Records
---
Amino acid sequence: MIDLHTHTNCSDGTDSPAQLVNKAIAEGLTVLALTDHDTTSGWESAQKTLRGDLSLALGAEISCLTNDGISVHMLGLLFDGAHSQMQEMLENTRDGRIPRALKIIELLNAGGIKISIEDVESVKPAGATLGRPHIADALVKNGVVSSRDEAFTDLLHNNSPYYVAHLAPTPEDAISMIRSAGGVAVIAHPFASLRGKVLSAADFLPLKIAGLNGIEVNHRDHSNDERSALADIARELDLVITGASDYHGTGKLNSLGENHTHQGQWERLESEADKRRVIRA
C-alpha cells in the first residue's frame, strides 16, 4: 500500500515523524511519503525510525497561489533536500504564514471572537510550520468551537470573512523549483471544492507544460464525480494518477492509507525524478 501525502507535527499534524513511521509500518504500508507543509524538518527523524519493508518518499507540500488568487497545494516528492533554492523558497513561504496568521487573528477579534497569537503559539508544537489548523486548535482551547473540523467549517474556510491569502509561489513556479531540485510534482486535491474556489479543467495544461508529473485524484475531499473528472484530465495529459490519505493524526478524520496509489503509477512517478531517492531500511 502506497500513501503519498501525510503530515506530522513538523507542520499541522499531531504525530511526530517517528510516530508516523511506526503507524505506517503497523498499517502495512510499503511506501510512505512525508509531505509536511513548506518544510523538510521531519525528514531526518523519519529516516532514523525507518525499518522493515517500509520505504520513504521524502517531500513537502508547498503552498501556492495562482495569479487569480486561488489557493493550490503542490506536493514535491523525491527532490534533493540540500537544494539551496528549494530550501529558500520553502523558508520564504513559511515566513509568509506569520503575518497571515496575525491578520486572521485580527479579523476574528474584530468579529467578536477572542483569540491571540499567544493562544496559537501555546498549541503549536515547537518548530512546526504555522498554519490555520493551529489557529483552529487555539479556538478549540478557548472554547469557541469543539474541534478543528468545526473551526474550518464555521470560521476558517477559504470563503470565510476571516480568510486571508498569503504570499506564496505560483503553482508553475513551485513545479519549476521541484523539478530543478530533481524531484517530481503532484498537485494535491485540486478539485476539493468544499475548501473554496478550485482550478478548472483548462488550468491543467499550463501546469503540464511547466513540468507537472501527476494529479492526486483519489482523496477524501473529492467526490466520485470529481475523481472521475480528474482521472480523465490525467489520462488526457498523460499524467500520473495518485491517491493518498492526507493524514494529519488526530487533527483530521483522515485515516492513514485510506486512499492509495497503484504500484504501476508509483513506479512511473519515481522514475521521473532525476535520481532514485526512495529511502529504504
Note: The longest helix spans residues 84-110.
---
Amino acid sequence: MPYNWVTCSPPEVRGFVFNLLGGIKEIIKEDFIGFYLHGSLAMGGFNPKSSDIDILVVSNKSLTVKTKRDLAKLLLASSNNPFPLELSVLTIKQLRDWKHPCPFDFHYSEWWRACYEKDLAKGTSHYLNDEIKTDPDLAAHITILNHRGICIEGNPIMEVFPSVPRFDYLSSIMGDFQDCLEGIEEDPIYCTLNLLRVLWYINDDVISSKQEAGNWGIAALPLDVRYTIQKVLMCYESTTIKYDFEKKELLRIRDFIESRILELLR
C-alpha cells in the first residue's frame, strides 16, 4: 500500500528525509532557504520498494564547486540507502526570474551517480562545475509543489516558488509523455500511469499522482482499457504482485490515450 508523508509515512522514510535535510543544511549553511517535498511521497503514492523521494532545495545564492562536491558526496552516500533520490538545488533568483526551461544550480538522481563518482575519484570537474544547466522537468516539479507539495523546513512554498504558466507546465509534461509513448513496452507501469496523468490534466485540469491517475482511469475510461489499467495499478501499489503485459494491450491503451489527447488539444 503506498504511503503519504503526513498520515502514514513509515518511520524509516521520515528518518531518511530528516537526516538528509540535516546534512544539506550543514553543507549549504546560511544560504539555506528551504527544503521541499514533491512527487509521490507528498501526494500519497509512495511505494518504499519502487518510488524515488523527490526534493527541491532553495539557496540564497549559487553554490561553489566545493559545495557541489560536498553535496554530491552526501547524496551518493544517501541515495539508494535505502531510497533513491531525485533532488535539485535552485537559487531564489532563478525562481524569481522565471524561464522555461528553468535553470538550476545542482541536480542529483541515480542517473548521475557514475558521473559524480568519477569526478570525485579523479579530482576532475566534468560534471561538478560552475556551468548553469536547465531542466524542462522543473516546470512540472514546481507546479506539483505549488499544488500538492510540502515544506519540510524553511520559507513557505507560496513565498518562494513562482506560479508556473500553464503553457510551460504543459510543455514540461508533454516531453515525458512522448517518452512514455515510445517506452510503454519497456516500462509499462510507469509509462501507463504517466500517460494517464497527462490525459487527466488535459481533460480536467487535475494535477494528480500516478496512483490517483490510475484510479481515475479505471473509473472514467472505456472497458477495453480498464483491465490493463487495473493490472498496472495493482503492480504499482504492491511489492509482490506482478503481471505480464501483452504488446497488443499496451499499444491499445497507448493509442487510445494519444488519440484522446490529440483531440483535446485541437
Note: The mean pLDDT is 95.
---
Amino acid sequence: MDICIIGGGLSGLAASLPLSETQDVTIFERRPIVGGCLASYDRGNYQIEEYYHHCFAGDRRLFSLLTDLGLSDRLEWLKGSTGYCVDGTIHPLTSPIEILRYPHLTIVEKARLALLTLRAKNFDLGPLDDVPAREFILEHLGEGIYASFFEPLLRSKFGDRRDEVSAAWLISRIAIRSDRGVEGERLGYIRGGWHELIDAMAERAQSRGCRIETDTPVTAISRKGDCWEVNGQVFDAVLATVPPQEIGRLIGTDHFAAIPYQGAACLTIGLDREVSQGIYWVNMKDPAPYGAVVTHTNFAPRERYGEDIVYLASYFGEQPATGLKETMLTDFCRRFSVPKESIHWAELAVERLAGPVYTTGFRHLIPAYEEHGVYLAGMYSPPNYPERSMEGSIAAGQEVAARILEGTDA
C-alpha cells in the first residue's frame, strides 16, 4: 500500500514510523527541513528550536518513543521559573513568597487563584467547552484577577479572539502547568535540543524505506478511482497533518470543517547578556509587540550555547504585522536596555497555521481520523484537545497510523 503523508511535523513523523514497517510511505514537507513547529536553527556549534518547547511529566507516549529511539538518557528535568512584567517592572512569581509579594493582586485574589490551580485537574472539561474563559474567570475569580492576570495572557495568546476562547482550554492549560515546586515548574527537555528527536524519527523512518521529500509543498490533490493523486503521484491513501480546510481547498471541496487557527511569530535572539532577572518565562502585561519573553538560557544551562538565548513570542490572525522583526527587536532593546551591538543574531520564525484557537464549541469541530476518504491527524485531533502538546501530536500520529493499518488488514 502506497501512503502519502502531507506534513513532516511531529504527527506526520510519528505516523510514518509504524506505517513504514509494512507499507510504502512518502512524506511531502513544504519546508527545507522536517519538524514543523519543532524544527531547529543550526547555529554551527549548537542547535536551538525555532519555537520554544518542553514536555511534561505525564507525556507517556513521548517517553516511550524516546526509549524506542535510544534517547531516553537525553531527557532531563529542569525548573521553569515565571514572572510578570507590569509597568516596566519584572515581578517574579515562582515561589509562594514571590507570589505573596506580587502587588497587583490582593491576598484574597491570590488565595482564589491558588485554589483554582489546585482544583484544575479535577474539573469536568466537557461542560466548560461551551463556557467562554472570560465568563468563567469573572464568575469564579472576579474582575480584579481577570484584569490584572488573565486578560493580558489571553490577549497576548489570542488577540481579538480572546473572548471566544473556552474555559475548557483555560482550565486544561492551568492543569498541565501545575507540576510546580518552590523553585518553579518541572519541565522536560532533551539535552542537546529537540532536533535529536526529530532527526532520530526521520532517520528511523527512512531506514524502513520512507521517502521524505522536503521543499515540496502539496499543490494538488484529486481522487482517481479508489486512489488519490498528489502532486502527480498516485497513492492508495492520504494522511494530512495540516488543517482539514487546507485539504478541502486543495481538493476543491468545502466538505471539511473549518478549524479556527492562528499564526505564530517567534523571534529568537542570541545576545551577550541576561535580561529577565534569571527568570525563564516572563509574561507581558505591559503593551508590547510580543506577549512573553522566554529566556531559554534561564532554563537550559547557558554554557551549552556560549551566549544567552531569548524568545519573543507573538501570535496573529491572518497575517503578521509588516516589519514585525524590526519592531520586536527595537522594542526589546529599548525595554530591556540592550544595546544593538549586544545582539549576536536574531531570526524570526513565522507560521501562518501554528495552532488551533480553542473557541467555545471546539470539541464539536474535531474531525474524525478519517473523513471523506482522507486520513487526518494533527494539532486539531482528539489527543490535542483542549490544549495542544508534543504528547498530543505524537498520540494523534500513532492513533491514525493504527487506523490505517487496521484497514490494510481488513
Note: The longest strand covers residues 343-356.
---
Amino acid sequence: MDDSDMRTEDLIKALDADARDKAMPLGKAWWLAVGVAVAIAAVVFFATIGPRPDIMPAMHTMRFMSKFVFTLVLAASAFALIRALSVPGASTGRRMAWMLAAPLLVVLAVVLELFVVPEADWGKRLIGSNMMICMSFIPLIGIGPLAVFLGMLRYGAPTRPVLAGAVAGLLAGGLAATFYAAHCFDDSPLFVATWYTVAIAFLTLLGAIGGRLFVRW
C-alpha cells in the first residue's frame, strides 16, 4: 500500500470516528431527521392541496393504493442507502441494489396496465388531468425535507457528497410523492411512471447540486 492509499484510509477512519462522536448518534439523528421531514411535508401538503375529496372510496381501488407502494418503497430504499452513505467506509452495495425495487415495481405496473387498458386510452392515461400540478407540488412538498436531509449529510461525513445528495433528493421525492399521491386524481401507472418520475428527478438533481456545494469535506 502506497502513502496516498494510507492517507486516504486514515482520513476515512478519522471521518468515521468524527461521525460516531457526535452529540447524538448518527443513526438516531437520521430517524429524528425523517420525523422532522415528514412533519414539514405534512404541513405544506395540508396547507396547500390536501387529500382528494373521495380518498376513502379511492383507497379501495388497486390503482390508487399502488401509487403508495411505489413511493414508500422508493423512500425506504433511499433512506437505507443514505444512512450508509453518511458513514465513511460503510458497505453500500446491497442498499444500492435495493434502489432498483421501486422502478421495477413501476415497470411491472405499467406492463399490467398496457395489457388491461385499450391502446386507444394509453395516451389519455399517460397525460392525465393533473400533470402540471404533479410536477409543481411534489418538488414544493419535497424541498423542505431535502434541506433537512442535506443538513443531516453535513452532520455525518459522506465521502461521495454528490451521490449522497442525489439520494437525499430521491428520499425527499419519495416522501413528497407519498403525500401528493393522496391528492392526485390520476391513478394510472402510466401517469405515475412518467410525471412522478419527472418531479422526483428534479429533486434528485437539486440534491446532487446541494451535495456538491454544501456537503464536502
Note: The chain has ten helices and no strands.
